[in-house]
Amino acid sequence: MLAAIEAGGTKFVCAVGDETGRIVDRIKIPTTIPEETMTEVIKFFKKYTVKSIGIGSFGPIDINEDSPAYGHITSTPKLAWKDYPIVETMKKAFGVPVGFNTDVNAAALGEATFGAAKGLDSCLYITVGTGIGAGAIVQGQLLQGLSHPEMGHILVRRHPNDSYEGNCPYHGDCLEGMAAGPAIENRWGLKGAELSEREEVWDLEGYYLAQAIMQYSLILSPKKIILGGGVSNQKQVFEAIHKYLPEFIQNYISLPELSSYIVKPGLGDDSGISGALMLASRALENN
Amino acid sequence: MLAAIEAGGTKFVCAVGDETGRIVDRIKIPTTIPEETMTEVIKFFKKYTVKSIGIGSFGPIDINEDSPAYGHITSTPKLAWKDYPIVETMKKAFGVPVGFNTDVNAAALGEATFGAAKGLDSCLYITVGTGIGAGAIVQGQLLQGLSHPEMGHILVRRHPNDSYEGNCPYHGDCLEGMAAGPAIENRWGLKGAELSEREEVWDLEGYYLAQAIMQYSLILSPKKIILGGGVSNQKQVFEAIHKYLPEFIQNYISLPELSSYIVKPGLGDDSGISGALMLASRALENN
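YS: structure for the whole thing
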């Protein structure tokens, strides 16, 4: 069996399955403190003969195999998990190869293998929720270098009618500071789910996301863009992105028809856990 | 022998050499019309027994091997070269494998193999001259997907004291429209080379390039950034980038010491031709 963990800030999804993406058992475990959460995680997997483990994790994390902190969750505001060596914990418990990457890179891998980008060697997975993150597959490889990307914090140009100052503690009005769920709530005074009929909310959201997609497309040139997270449940966001993206790009690059190019996850909520299964599969191959 | 072509808008550099980067002969040929230029190119290489050919080309080009226009220079404003099938021309003349990519991706490959990023599996090569372009190596692979990146046209935020409108025919005040050589000349009324003592020129240039580097770093996380092209000869540009980049990033990601992270090309003017040699070497391997 391959073991997969989607390690999130509120819950861990654990699953066992195989390299075809088939999941045979799964469990959700609340993210409390490592001693509690990881004990439950290990207990779940101990029911199976685990050949390798894949972890797609919230971050920031250290994915540089030459670094002494490789396999750690690093400077997270969730203090109990700061500097937590999650890879080492799983290796000690199971003695098998462990693949480790960000939750969004795992989701991109899941979508490229089994989902909306199935069969493509390149895609971008963006999630817009409590924060904004993105992962990508480039020529079949997970996008990483010095570290993992932090695409949610790119700079955007403010909409001329938007006076919201932005709430990113680092950058104020970067993409995440202007367009993540908490920014929507702060700006409009209601949670996103309560604003679903307010066209102007999603039009503005699309304005910022279209700018981000322009930057991502010019820099990465992905073959498919998958937009997940809570905000992607608002279909008006896609309409607004389709409207603004051509205004920004001005036909400088030619993109496929936008409604088939920028899409919802093909795997629904399972992009991340399916990708973690593939991280396990790759870890086994590379061993 | 491996054959390498750096196809530029004003000249073609052709070289023969080997996979260690050694160049044994080279020639420069003016870029006029394909019938003239390519005749000279072929004549040069016919002196040797060519095993494979690598081409790093000005663009836009079609590098999608599934496309009917693969191997063409596509919508260039140099009309004689529009839709020119450069790969097919070389294949017909020599009957050997041909590797084909952008000039900047080739330069990134050259720097990652023999230059400032030697030994690294990831780097970003930016050139700032008549235009702005960038290429990258990600996990040892050339960065490409739907097409090649067009990083020079990302959006930047205008400096509050800069009233120059920008001269990109597509986007006005995108990065290239604000910071390429012609924008510098338009804004200040003199060519860059004549402005070398004007601190404010290079400070503003660094402001825009630092923003671009922030976006590239957050999206690609390269292990090394190489800044080439005419503008990189102004050392004040590096100083300004070192000043502004931390202001933009605000310690959100940790970067290496900037003077060793953002550097001039290790190969001087040979990044592109050396990379084209490696494109030839890879084409031979993949055959």
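YS: worth flagging: The interface with chain A takes residues 121-122, 138-139, 141-151, 153-157, 170-171, 211, 214-223, 248, 250-253, 255-256 of chain B (CB under 8 Å).
IM: good catch. Also Residues 199-220 of chain B form the longest helix (22 residues).
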